[in-house]
Amino acid sequence: LGIPTNRIYYKTDSDVGQAEFSKVFSKDGWLEKRVKPGKTNIYVYYAGHGAPDLKHNKAYLIPYDGDPNYASQTGYEVDALYSHLSDLEAASVTVFLDACFSGANRNNEMLLADARPVFMEVNESMARNVTVFSAAGGKQISSAWPEKKHGLFTYFLMKGLKGAADINNDKNITVGELASYVETNVSETAGMLDREQTPGLQARDHNEIIVKY
């Protein structure tokens, strides 16, 4: 995406505690201090666990030190993430979300004490001016692809960004082209793995160019 290394905030595994989410996305946090209204393009990529809070019908990202059974206490609310990103008034905001909110992991193993999948839809209306590529529908698991050592969504997202999604070969990849490529390939491959997974897109402009090469 042509982003300078010193503009990338990259954390994995045990480095991603709940405090990291607050540090980066809160008022006057790491991200807000670096945004120039109307000029900055923001990209957020998250691969990890999500979990629901059924009492309040909210979806949460679960950090390394979080507990899916206490999502609202130890997680980071997805609606709050979208709301904060929308308020930054950046030129564009794109979120790639390789997570689901059923309470199960990529191997369909339950993270919740109840041991039953919970199906809920994320309220994407909170995204407002944020483009969101999501890994799966609300009633689906975000699957792993063991052969490639990736999540299905992430594998085809990366492949699409590298050029495979350029359907008309014009050296530009639009939001719509990337979404179509990812949805088609993830859905087909999930079927071969005896699963159902249909990635989603929330966007105002499907013709927005996301990659030039």
What attributes does this structure have?
213 residues, single chain
What can you see in these coordinates?
- With 213 residues, the protein is an alpha+beta fold.
- Helices cover 25% and strands 21% of the residues.
- The protein contains 5 helices and 11 strands.
- The strands form 4 sheets. The chain has a 4-stranded mixed β-sheet, with helices on one face.
- Helix 4 packs across helix 5.
- The longest helix is centred in the last third of the chain and has 18 residues.
Brief characterization of the structure:
This protein has helices at residues 18-25, 71-74, 78-87, 152-164, 175-192, and strands at residues 41-47, 49-53, 58-62, 76-77, 92-98, 131-134, 144-145, 150-151, 172-174, 200-202, 209-212. With 213 residues, the chain is an alpha+beta fold.
